[in-house]
Design brief:
Elements (H helix, E strand, L loop, with lengths): L2 E5 L3 H12 L3 E6 L13 E3 L5 H8 L4 E4 L6 H9 L8 H8 L1 H11 L6 E4 L2 H11 L4 E4 L9 E3 L3 H13 L4 E4 L4 E11 L5 E3 L3 E6 L2 E7 L6 H18 L3 E10 L4 E7 L9 H4 L4 H9 L14 E7 L9 H11 L4 E4 L9 E8 L9 H20 L6 E2 L4 E2 L2
Parallel strand pairs: 1-2, 1-4, 2-3
Antiparallel strand pairs: 5-8, 6-7, 6-8, 9-10, 9-11, 9-13, 11-12, 12-15, 13-14, 15-17, 16-17, 18-19
Helix pairs in contact: 1-10, 3-4, 4-5, 11-12
Length: 404
């Protein structure tokens, strides 16, 4: 049976390992250390850095495919591995567009994909000039490495803008500026593509961000016109095909006040916006990613409930005195239908330490706002309990009563 190497030992690799077990496969992980989430559970671990070519070679030896749980691997190393016969998927020629936002914007512009106006920033003068062409303020971004709200600035103070630009450029950080899109909500179109060229898409989902970090995903996105949802899925599949993506890819989108969709960013790997499918779709993103990189026929992406809500378990400002094991005990006693996925991480403020999925009752409808709101409330209540050991509705886990 195949061996797939995944570069990176985080929670995405950990959950891909779970899918590999079910398929009888082996997931080899290149991890920075034995305490990383995937290294804790995979029996086939190579310890090393993702930017060390020799470590990449060791991890790739004998593998049927090499793939990623993050996009930070130098493409020049991946091109060397390609020349040495390694099946790097997605290939570096595609991955570059998830690594470099300037390259992504230029390529998507050539494809005619809807996106914000942008400008490359190579000096403080460029940053000032962009105020006239993009609006004031605009969104300043690190072209590489930014994630979960990091590497993004919206600055009304021009002196502060000058300072940040000068500081980042001096540190060797490439920058771009984008017009500030007036959006009503954020969406994600998740797709998969195989080397054979087969494509599959999940329903478009709504993502709810807090402090630049994904907190909640509602699948499918409520109040999204069918033609708009179809257009988003087709756009994501077209981008995957044009860029030569293999594996799963998330196209993060803004929905504007006028109802148009604008591409924000790309992620060429399993993605937080696809976690709902582990329990809420016939084929989840982790199994689908393995199918895709091994060129298996892709799985059915149909949802199995009218709505599934994923809520991230984000670390509390201070870890509760109650152990996670006891928190799980109380959660399952009160909410036995909640699906829990924990990542084996230590708890600290705002760290993603797990997620929960809650499926709505089959009798409900995505078109019923009260039904959707009730499922979302339950998911967020469960996630908050796991992170804070406090029930948001005042429930007392010992007496079974609401109140202080």
């Amino acid at each position: 049976m195949p061996v797939v190497t995944m570069i990176g030992g985080g929670q995405l690799a950990r959950m891909t390992h779970q899918a590999a077990i079910a398929l009888g496969q082996t997931l080899r992980v290149l991890a920075a250390g034995p305490d990383e989430p995937a290294a804790q559970v995979s029996p086939n671990v190579v310890i090393g850095s993702h930017d060390d070519l020799d470590a990449l070679r060791r991890a790739a030896t004998g593998a049927h495919a090499l793939t990623f749980d993050h996009e930070g691997v130098p493409t020049e190393h991946l091109e060397v591995l390609q020349r040495e016969g390694v099946a790097v998927l997605p290939p570096p020629q595609a991955l570059i567009y998830a690594q470099d936002k300037i390259a992504m914007r230029k390529r998507l512009g050539a494809l005619g994909a809807p996106m914000p106006k942008f400008a490359e920033i190579t000096s403080v003068e460029d940053a000032r000039a962009a105020l006239d062409t993009l609006g004031d303020p605009y969104v300043l971004k690190a072209a590489r490495g930014g994630y979960d709200g990091r590497g993004v600035w919206i600055l009304d103070d021009h002196a502060e803008l000058d300072r940040v630009v000068a500081e980042q450029l001096a540190a060797g950080v490439p920058l771009l500026a984008e017009e500030k899109v007036e959006w009503t909500r954020e969406l994600s179109a998740m797709v998969a593509r195989s080397p054979f060229g087969q494509g599959a898409s999940w329903p478009v989902v709504e993502t709810v961000q807090r402090d630049g970090q994904c907190a909640v995903v509602i699948a499918p996105a409520p109040d999204l016109a069918e033609d708009v949802a179809t257009a988003a899925e087709q756009l994501a599949l077209r981008i995957a095909g044009e860029l030569g993506v293999v594996g799963v890819m998330a196209v993060e989108l803004f929905e504007t006040r006028s109802g148009e969709l604008v591409v924000n960013e790309l992620a060429m790997r399993p993605h937080n916006s696809g976690h709902w499918g582990m329990d809420g779709a016939r084929t989840g993103q982790f199994e689908q990613h393995l199918r895709a990189v091994l060129d298996y026929p892709l799985g059915d992406t149909s949802p199995i409930a009218p709505v599934t809500v994923m809520a991230n378990v984000l670390g509390a400002p201070e870890a509760p005195a109650m152990s996670m094991d006891e928190r799980l005990h109380h959660l399952f006693a009160r909410m036995p239908d909640v699906h829990v996925h924990l990542y084996g991480k230590g708890e600290r403020k705002d760290r993603k330490i797990g997620h929960v999925n809650v499926l709505g009752a089959p009798s409900g409808s995505i078109d019923d706002p009260e039904y959707v709101a009730a499922v979302r409330e339950r998911a967020e209540r469960a996630a908050h309990w796991l992170s804070h050991a406090v029930w948001t509705d005042g429930w007392n886990e010992h007496t079974g009563e609401n109140g202080e």
